[in-house]
Structures are given as structure tokens and as C-alpha cells.
């Protein structure tokens, strides 16, 4: 299995929402940055205007945004305090997931979100996942800043067994690796495991 969480309380909030609403998402977070710090060192990480799906199916016109907090409790208190974010329909039909953070985030603006279906957990954990992590690391990425089979849903729903979030120096490095023989071989040799959705997001990072 992946490493223990960096801090058992640190989490990311993953928003999946319509990419036409990125300006509203950005503007609200800019105005909330100082307030968020008072809730468990909360901070906006970034958001993507577009997503590049490299494997599987990603919902059309949907994008992602990330926020970081010291704990789920402080994240919930912040969300309840903000008149925009607490509205269920503010970002229209969006999903909101709580993900445990496994290591400190890099400054890289390119994120890869892998959402796996896992019919054989033993094979996934002991055979596929270690090879997947090592291959991303060798290619210059930072694998598994989030790697969890436990996804808490605050809004929406999901049909995912394991969420794996990595970072890359650039979108080009990530895309080239996914086209490499090694990546293709890994994916082709594990069709029952790697049959989820893999997407690359070039994030606009908050300073």
C-alpha cells in the first residue's frame, strides 16, 4: 500500500465543476484567501480551465479545483462560514470530495488525476500500484500526493475505487510519458486494473 499520510488530519478538497465557472471559482477564492488561513491553515491550491483525458472517459466540460486544510473539520467549518461555497447550487452540478494528503505538494502546476476501478484489490495494491508509482517517479513526476481507496463525498457521487493524484513539472512531460512505451506497456498489461479515468490538469496556482 502507499505510505501513511503525512499528517493524519491534512486533506485536500477536490472540486469537480463546469469549466465555464472557473472565473467565479477563482474570484471567490481570491477574496477568501485571508479568511481561509484562519481555518486550519486553509489555502486554495489552484484550478484548471481545461482537462486533458489520456485514458478512459472524463465528463465533458468539467474541470477541477483543489483546496488544502489541516483537517476535514476545519475545512467543513470554513465551508459553512462562506455564503457562496456553502450554497449547494453555487457551482451548479458539482462534486466535492475529501481526500487525505499523503505528502507535501510540489510547486508544480501540472496535476494528474487517476481514478481507478479495482476489481482485484490485492493485484492492484501489490502489483500494479508500486510499478505505477515508480514509473511516474522515474519519468520526473511526483506520484501519489494523494493515494486512497477512501473517498469521502460531501457533494455528488462517484464510482471510483481508488483516487491517485500526482504532480508533473510540465504538461508536456506528463503527456510524453503517457505516450511512452513504458506507460503503454503498464496500462496494456493491467487492463482489469487500469480501466478508470486518467486526466492531466494544467493548474492556475494561487500564490
Can you walk me through this structure?
This protein is 30% helix and 33% strand. The protein is α+β, with helices and mostly antiparallel strands. It has a single domain (11-205), classed as Alpha-Beta Plaits. A 9-stranded antiparallel beta sheet has the order 6-8-5-9-2-3-1-4-7. The longest helix has 18 residues, at 121-138. The mean pLDDT is 89.
Give the name of the CATH architecture: 2-Layer Sandwich
CATH class: Alpha Beta
The SS-based structural class is alpha+beta
Number of helices: 5
Helix content: 25-40%
Instruction: Please name the CATH topology.
Output: Alpha-Beta Plaits
The SSE string, one letter per element, is EHEEHEEHEEEHHE
Whole-number count of domains: 1
The fraction of residues in strands falls at 25-35%
Strand order of the largest sheet: 6-8-5-9-2-3-1-4-7
Q: Provide the low-confidence segments as ranges.
A: none
Strand elements, count: 9
Which structural traits does this protein have?
single chain; 207 residues; Alpha-Beta Plaits; 9-stranded antiparallel beta sheet; 30% helix; 33% strand; globular
Give a short overview.
With 207 residues, this protein is an alpha+beta fold. The chain has helices spanning 22-37, 72-81, 121-138, 171-179, 181-189, and strands spanning 11-18, 43-55, 62-69, 95-100, 110-116, 142-148, 152-155, 162-168, 197-205. The chain is built from 5 helices and 9 strands; from the N terminus they run E-H-E-E-H-E-E-H-E-E-E-H-H-E.
Itemize the secondary structure elements and their pairings:
Elements: E1 11-18, H1 22-37, E2 43-55, E3 62-69, H2 72-81, E4 95-100, E5 110-116, H3 121-138, E6 142-148, E7 152-155, E8 162-168, H4 171-179, H5 181-189, E9 197-205
Antiparallel strand pairs: 1-3, 1-4, 2-3, 2-9, 4-7, 5-8, 5-9, 6-8
Amino acid at each position: 500500500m502507499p505510505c501513511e499520510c503525512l499528517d493524519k488530519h491534512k486533506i485536500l478538497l477536490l472540486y469537480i465543476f463546469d469549466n465555464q465557472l472557473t472565473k467565479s471559482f477563482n474570484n471567490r477564492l481570491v477574496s477568501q484567501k485571508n479568511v481561509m488561513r484562519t481555518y486550519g491553515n486553509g489555502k486554495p491550491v489552484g484550478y484548471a480551465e481545461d482537462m486533458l483525458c489520456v485514458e478512459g472517459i472524463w465528463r465533458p466540460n468539467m474541470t477541477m479545483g483543489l483546496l488544502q486544510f489541516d483537517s476535514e473539520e476545519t475545512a467543513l467549518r470554513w465551508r459553512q462560514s462562506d455564503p457562496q461555497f456553502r450554497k449547494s447550487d453555487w457551482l451548479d452540478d458539482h462534486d466535492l470530495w475529501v481526500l487525505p494528503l499523503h505528502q507535501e505538494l510540489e510547486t508544480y502546476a501540472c496535476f494528474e488525476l487517476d481514478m481507478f476501478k479495482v476489481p482485484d484489490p490485492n493485484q492492484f495494491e501489490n502489483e500494479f500500484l508500486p510499478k505505477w508509482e515508480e514509473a511516474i517517479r522515474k519519468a520526473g513526476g511526483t506520484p501519489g500526493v494523494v493515494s486512497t481507496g477512501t473517498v469521502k463525498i460531501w457533494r455528488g457521487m462517484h464510482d471510483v475505487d481508488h483516487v491517485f493524484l500526482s504532480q508533473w513539472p510540465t504538461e508536456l512531460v506528463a503527456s510524453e510519458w503517457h505516450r511512452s512505451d513504458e506507460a503503454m506497456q503498464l496500462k496494456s498489461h493491467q487492463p482489469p486494473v487500469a480501466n478508470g479515468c486518467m486526466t492531466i490538469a494544467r493548474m492556475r496556482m494561487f500564490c
